[in-house]
Design brief:
two-stranded antiparallel sheet, 62% helix, 6% strand, 64 residues, single chain, mainly alpha
């Protein structure tokens, strides 16, 4: 096995960082907003306020 080139290493780091940014911006778990326990963990952790609002609205609609 040859060691990864600098470019490959950079690419991997970049991908990881990008997916972390994604999570920070609340893009993770937003679509499965409502789960069996109300909110998925990723949704609670990563959603922005605006998306959070939408989620609560969805929940209220479901509970009526």
């Amino acid at each position: 096995m040859q060691s990864p080139t600098l470019h490959e290493k950079f690419q991997t780091t970049y991908e990881t960082r990008k997916s972390r940014e994604h999570m920070k911006q609340g893009k993770v778990g937003r679509d499965n907003c409502v789960t069996s326990n109300g909110l998925s963990e990723t949704t609670q952790t990563h959603m922005s306020d605006h998306e959070d609002e939408q989620c609560s609205q969805k929940l209220e609609i479901l509970q009526e």
